[in-house]
Automatic annotation (TrEMBL), chains A, B:
Residues 29-48 bind DNA. Residues 6-66 form the HTH tetR-type domain. This is Gamma-butyrolactone-binding protein. PANTHER family: HTH-TYPE TRANSCRIPTIONAL REGULATOR BETI, HTH-TYPE TRANSCRIPTIONAL REGULATOR RUTR. It comes from the Bacteria. NCBIfam families: ScbR_bind_reg (NF041196). It comes from Streptomyces daqingensis. Keywords: DNA-binding, Transcription, Transcription regulation. InterPro entries: ArpA-like, DNA-bd_HTH_TetR-type_CS, Homeodomain-like_sf, HTH-type_TetR-like_transc_reg, HTH_TetR, Tet_transcr_reg_TetR-rel_C_sf.
């Protein structure tokens, strides 16, 4: 997709996220989103054929971001992935809009399964890699534990938003993982895992620094 | 409150729950709720002064139900309380409406903290009682564990509704508790706790049977 099309698509998704937030998914109309986005009807329908597709776009807006750095310890990589997501929720309104839409249980006609399934698959794969390295306790079933973490995360973030407007989100998700991990990874792995409320901010800074280095490297190659 | 007033109040709350579900909280109006409930404007405003108060009524509709039977083992009582709530979610549309409203993160002007705080207090008290009986591991902080269970429950139920329309809710909540409890209660307690996907249905039947016995006893006393 060309730069201009990507920018238009993003503008439309931001308008959709804002209208869904303001009016609720059920009551929102394409006309509302059109006037908020300030694009032509043709441009909107080129990217999204329906309100449902706009919602799916918002639900998927979190995907395709820079991955967390690969770690020798896969349990650490899982923690990092979850905690970077905490940071994204706190700093990116599109990521927030996606999660809020996924939890809009009143929107009966909207398929909200995407984020739950995508996240479950990602965490299952990481846990399977952890299993192969001998990091997991013998009774653990990766798909079950992944499902528990994804579901529990969704609720804990909702509670944090409700009670503290996400100010305590890092602490609350670290607290959740500290309740689950001792029953998932072997004790030597547990002792080595870095898990505090700020972990997401630290790893996000690491990702940003790596992206910058890569950018400079590309510039050098280009020049 | 008189029987008739209780029935009218319930009718209004059911209408509010239905309208919030259909149109979303943000777009719903008192006029919509009025025409769905089929009561007079005076009756509605006698019970609820605003849309926010109607929403608070829906959020609190789950309260005041028959308590779960007291258990010698407080960890079992906690499990029973959580699993009975599973059963209520599956069978009572008002309970569902309350949870869905509590998770409507897009409704920025609605105070949704009530259910999170009430449930956290209830589970904290139960965990403190468990602590006094020596059921908990030494590192456990009741308020933290209660908060984790409440938040996690909210998300796991949302995921179950999205992926299976609550068909697997009992299994998914039992799975959540099986991931958390080994890190909360001592092993002899863990071994004794009955925790399967059907637990909520069984205990709900027990509660109903007790209520019936109490009713018969009252009739006997009255006659």
């Amino acid at each position: 997709m060309q730069d201009r099309a990507i920018r238009t698509r993003r503008k439309i998704l931001e308008a959709a996220a804002s209208v869904f937030g303001e009016r609720g998914y059920q009551a929102a109309t394409i006309a509302d989103i059109l006037s908020t986005a300030g694009v032509t009807k043709g441009a909107l329908y080129f990217h999204f054929a329906s309100k449902e597709q706009l919602a799916q776009g918002v639900l998927r807006a979190q995907e395709g971001q820079d991955p967390v750095p690969s770690r020798t310890c896969k349990a650490q990589e899982l923690v990092d992935m979850v905690m970077v997501y905490v940071h994204r929720l706190q700093t990116d309104s599109m990521v927030r809009a996606g999660v809020w839409l996924a939890l809009n249980q009143q929107a009966a006609d909207l398929d909200r399964s995407g984020p739950f399934l995508t996240w479950s698959e990602t965490l299952t794969e990481l846990l399977e890699a952890a299993r192969e390295q001998g990091e997991l306790l013998p009774h653990v079933k990766p798909a079950e534990t992944a499902r528990v973490i994804v579901g529990a995360f969704a609720g804990v973030q909702a509670m944090s938003q409700t009670l503290s407007d996400y100010a305590d989100l890092g602490e609350r998700i670290a607290e959740l993982l500290r309740h689950i991990l001792p029953n998932v990874v072997i004790s030597s792995v547990l002792a080595s895992v870095a898990l505090d409320g700020d972990r997401g901010t630290k790893v996000s800074a690491e990702i940003a620094a790596e992206a910058e280095t890569d950018g400079q490297r590309l510039e050098t190659v280009g020049g």
